[in-house]
Write a structure and sequence with these properties.
Layout: H1 14-27, H2 32-45
Organism: Sphingomonas tabacisoli
Protein name: Ribbon-helix-helix domain-containing protein
Pfam families: RHH_1
Length: 52
C-alpha cells in the first residue's frame, strides 16, 4: 500500500458532510478520509465520461 503523506484541504457543505457520513455508516467505512479516498478511487475507475 502506498504511503499517504499528501494532505488536501477540502471545503464542503453541511449537507455533503451528512451524505458522506451516511454513506460511511452504510458501508462501514471508519473515517471520512477513507470514505473520500474510496469515492475518488471509484470515480477514477469509472470509464464513463461524467459530461455524458
Amino acid at each position: 500500500m502506498e504511503k499517504k503523506d499528501v494532505r488536501i484541504q477540502l471545503v464542503i457543505s453541511p449537507s455533503e458532510v451528512e451524505a458522506l457520513d451516511e454513506w460511511r455508516a452504510r458501508n462501514k467505512v471508519w473515517s471520512r478520509s477513507q470514505a473520500i479516498r474510496e469515492a475518488i478511487r471509484r470515480m477514477l475507475e469509472d470509464k464513463s465520461d461524467p459530461r455524458d
